[in-house]
Amino acid sequence: KEGKLVQKQEERKKVMTSIPENLDEYKKKRDDTTDILRKTLREERFKNKRCYGEDVLESMDGAPVNASSPSGERSSVEKSEASLPPMQLSDLPSIIISLHKSATPEQAYPHLFNLRRLLSTKGITPIQQVLDTGILPKLLDLLKQKDKPRVQFEAAWCITNIATGNEEQIQAVINKGGIEILRDVLRSPDLPCREQTIWAFANIAGENYLLRNKILDAEVLHYISEITKTTTEYSLLKSCVWCLANLCRGKPPPSISLVKPSYSAIAHIIVNQKDERLLTDACWTLYYLSDGGGERINIIFSTGAVPAVISLMLHKEVKVALPCLRVIGNITTGTDEHTQAIIDLETIDILKQLIASPMQALRKESCWVLSNIAAGTIPQIKTLMASGAIEAIVSIIVKDIFEIKREALYILLNIVSKGGIEEIRRLIEMHAVEALCELLTTPEVKALSVILQTLMFFLSYGSKMGFDYNVTTKIIEDHGYITNLENLQLHDNQAIYQLVTEALEKYFDVVEVEESLQAIDGIGDKNATGLSIFEQ
User: Fold this and answer.
1) What pLDDT is recorded for position 12?
2) I need a surface site. Which of 31, 207, 473, 528 has the fewest CB within 10 A?
3) How many helices (H) and strands (E) in the chain?
């Protein structure tokens, strides 16, 4: 082992540098590419595109909703559809011929009705076949019939289901002026027509960010935001929030100038609604809106919704609490003033409760928020230390699943890198060094790098604790963790090798490490009792 270690040392010394991690980036945004849980929950709730058909659909949180009528109540005509024979693809030619022959909207209505039924038939949805007939201009013309709401509604329903297709099929609607025509329907006094149109916009926006931006450029979001703030119709409100979600989400995020009206609309839902479906959808939308820096965060504060979001972190439903944690996490990636505003709302006390939650997702997100608070000012760190939350964090590092341990590690790193000697002394008394050293055998490079960086800060302060020896060095040696550090000199990752080599060369007698361990072997048993080194 010694020969192999020397060989690796000689090979690598030529390229040794200082600690490779950029410790200026203390506050971190959520890494969506690795956050599988949040992504899965979001995808289950926010169906990007939904076919507005005759069958019962699922709402955004998986509960069944009646899709045959935007108001939630089936009309007498819709009730009669249950007794009608099912539509077949073979019916399409005769429907199209009849529509083309119709001289008035009234004449077109029954054939439009059948086309909508065909487009809504489960397992068929012949979007391309319908487009190939060249009927799209006729549908859009019927969509303009402001004084014929039932015709307009059926046309909007057809366009909605066509918009569940692929990008090329949706682009065909846009190329014929579909966005502008649909936007005009938003002014209709007929509630079902407005809701159906909003559903169509949600489907278009759900395809990709390019189509989303075309809707935003047409200032559609302004109309939908106003409807959201003024309507009392639950079904319409639900469709509005879903549409706003699709208009505000996606990478790259939309320009803040295009989505600014949605902030107050979503805040209105969060502050005034109790329905968990609406709250869940609204809170996820606010999470999308909070991602992007100081100006977005300032707008969120200006809506007055932040206290409500913080309160909702304790909501009984995790699907409501989780996006709220995300919003607060994004806010704490902002300035120290943003973070202080969150602290002043007694958020740390709520986070302290959540890190003890039986729900893994809530524990993980709470650790993320706490890590951003720990990256704040010295007074903010002292407030965090005084809250009693950090004892629980050390316990998480010892006992929780690795995914959550990884998040908790950043809290300690931020405290030791931005705090002072008193904070580090307190962490040592909590046995944080031992908790970190127990994870030195982890195979994950990123977590291992955070552990080693944190230990380097502990080691640098270890000689400043009022003793004639380095407290951190003694803990590591007394508990036998020096072996774990030595073994990491054989690690394949260059950054890990550099970190551990720097620690061993600066704070330990690398050459005589085996002799040192033998010399203090008896002391090791005594100091491994679990007592703080300050209590011995």
Assistant:
1) 34
2) 31
3) 33, 2
Does residue 116 contact residue 152 with C-beta atoms inside 8 Å? no
Distance between CA atoms of residues 374 and 369, nearest Å:
9
* Amino acid, res. 304: G
* Residue listed under structure tokens 């409760």: 353
**Sign (positive/negative) of CA torsion 125, 131, 135, 139?**
positive
Return left, alpha or beta for 317; rule: phi > 0 is left, psi -120 to 50 is alpha, else beta: beta
Q: What is the dihedral of CA 298, 39, 248, 177, to 10 degrees?
A: 170
Q: Report how far residue 341's alpha carbon sits from residue 347's, in angstroms, rounded to the nearest whole number.
A: 9
Residue showing tokens 């995914």: 403
CA pseudo-torsion sign 375, 377, 378, 384: negative
35: amino acid identity, one letter: D
Q: pLDDT digit string (tens) for 441-476? A: 999 999 999 999 999 999 999 999 888 999 999 999
Peptide bond before residue 379 is cis, with ω within 30 degrees of 0 = no
In this prediction the pTM is 0.82
Enter the tokens of residue 392.
């629980």
State residue 64 phi and psi, 5-degree precision. -70, 140
Q: Is the separation of the CB atoms in 407 and 364 below 8 Å?
A: yes
**Tens-digit pLDDT profile for residues 223-246:** 999 999 999 999 999 999 999 999
Report the 3 state secondary structure along 428-447.
HHCCHHHHHHCCCCCCCHHH
CB of 127 closer than 8 Å to CB of 164: yes
60, pLDDT greater than 50: no
State whether residue 58 is helix, strand or coil. Answer: strand
